[in-house]
């Protein structure tokens, strides 16, 4: 299920639907259904932006996000492991 690591942070996984480098965002087609627009915050390190550039539409990703509303969220970090 959806377990928050820190309060308000959710772990999601799915495939990348669209990538908009101008706006530093991508859409995530979640494995559990639905699509979420994920934005990189202005404070995101350059490495996070580089990683977004490397992804292609259809790539499988795992992310930790902080929801903004029902359809948008802010990236907390890329990837997570099942430890």
**Roughly what percent helix?**
10-25%
Radius of gyration, in angstroms, nearest whole number: 12 Å
Q: CATH superfamily, please?
A: Nucleic acid-binding proteins
Q: What order do the strands of the largest sheet run in, or round the barrel if closed?
A: 1-2-3-5-4
Q: Proportion of β residues?
A: 35-45%
Coarse shape: globular
Largest sheet: 5 strands, mixed, barrel
Topology, number of strands: 5
CATH architecture: Beta Barrel
Q: Which H/E pattern describes the elements?
A: EEEHEE
Structural class: mainly beta
Total domain count? 1
Report the uncertain regions: none
The overall pLDDT, averaged over residues, is 91
Describe how the helices and strands are arranged.
Blueprint: E1 10-20, E2 25-30, E3 35-39, H1 46-54, E4 60-67, E5 72-78
Parallel strand pairs: 3-5
Antiparallel strand pairs: 1-2, 1-4, 2-3, 4-5
What are the main properties of this structure?
83 residues; mainly beta; OB fold (Dihydrolipoamide Acetyltransferase, E2P); 5-stranded mixed barrel
């Amino acid at each position: 299920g959806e377990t928050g690591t820190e309060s308000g942070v959710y772990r999601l996984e799915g495939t990348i639907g669209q990538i908009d480098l101008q706006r530093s965002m991508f859409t995530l087609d979640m494995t559990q259904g639905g699509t979420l627009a994920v934005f990189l915050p202005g404070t995101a390190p350059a490495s996070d932006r580089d990683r977004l550039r490397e992804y292609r539409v259809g790539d499988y990703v795992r992310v930790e996000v902080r929801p903004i509303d029902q359809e948008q969220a802010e990236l907390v970090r890329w990837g997570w492991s099942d430890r």
